[in-house]
Amino acid sequence: MLTIKKYAAIDIGSNAVRLLIANIIEEKGKPTKFKKSSLVRVPIRLGADVFLEGKISKKNTERMVDTMLAFKLLMKSHNVDKYKACATSAMREAKNGPAVVQQILKQSDINIDIIEGDEEAAIIAATDLNAFINPDKTYLYVDVGGGSTEFTVIDRGETVISRSFKIGTVRLLNDMVKRETWTELETWIKDHTKTFDKIDLIGSGGNINKIFKVSGKAIGKPLTFFYLTSYYHMLQSYSYDERITELDLNQDRADVIIPASRIYLSAMKWSGAKDIYVPKIGLSDGIIKSLYYETVSSKRLA
């Protein structure tokens, strides 16, 4: 017997807000399949407000309400059975974060959970990577966001440790990451990867997805440290306007792609990784999976 349900994940990040709609395909005797149906991305960049002013501006609050109303209509059109909305770094640091959440709930009926960095890292780490990784290898999974980056060490298919650091693309653009934070990250990566003979990176986030697409590499093949370094230096040789006109990058990608590349390269350098795999997964996928497993658990308990 085959059943197909639609679940949605709303990821409210520091750079962009995303709605992912996925088909949950259950067939007796077979593993559950999660198939992406639709992805909508709106570049609101909440972090530019919060990391500089400490709160979300009135203009961006209104944009958030409009976006959530649009997402609600899209979920209705797609016949979504269940959804979960999670807000990360910018919203959790905003003084008016809880008030904005209440306003959105009142005006759009979308309920948002503001999650802590460790919970964010755990949701991302729980994403089923088995389809993308070699079960005999060790990986450092790096999910770069606008306000924070989540790091997870995975050995032979099992999560060893996860941690969130306040190093993100929007934060770096505004020169808001202290040298001590970089040092703390370097120490953490070295301490938790030094016991492994060989380690590869897994990169997620819109910026590394874009770099992978530009590379022309076949899906499943990694980018090398050499390639990413060359691309990083090439990006720096272009002005912001040139990155838009000549490299065909979106306005909200053309600036953050440089600090994002720096984070991935730093992680590769400190872990000794020579390759980075890009499976196109992230927090939205993790939210869908956690929502599904929460539903399955509640059914078993009922």
What does the model show?
Helix content is 46%, strand content 24%. It starts with a strand and ends with a helix. The strands form two sheets. A six-stranded mixed β-sheet has the order 8-7-6-9-11-10. It has a five-stranded mixed β-sheet with strand order 3-2-1-4-5, with helices on both faces. The chain is globular and about 45 Å long. With 302 residues, it is an alpha/beta fold. The relative contact order is 0.15. The chain has helices at 46-53, 58-77, 89-93, 97-108, 117-125, 169-173, 179-193, 206-215, 225-236, 240-245, 251-254, 257-271, 283-301, and strands at residues 2-12, 17-27, 33-42, 82-87, 112-114, 138-144, 149-155, 158-165, 200-204, 223-224, 275-277.
Any descriptors?
11 strands, alpha/beta, five-stranded mixed sheet, 302 residues, six-stranded mixed sheet, globular, 46% helix
Average pLDDT rating:
94
Helix content estimate: 40-55%
Class inferred from helices and paired strands: alpha/beta
Distance between the termini: 22 Å
Q: How is the main sheet built?
A: 6 strands, mixed
**Cα-based radius of gyration, to the nearest Å:** 19 Å
Give unreliable regions as ranges: none
User: Which strands sit side by side, in order, in the main sheet?
Assistant: 8-7-6-9-11-10
Q: Give the strand tally.
A: 11
Percent strand equals 15-25%
Instruction: Please tally the helical runs, counting DSSP H or I stretches of 4 or more residues.
Output: 13
Question: How would the global form be characterised?
Answer: globular
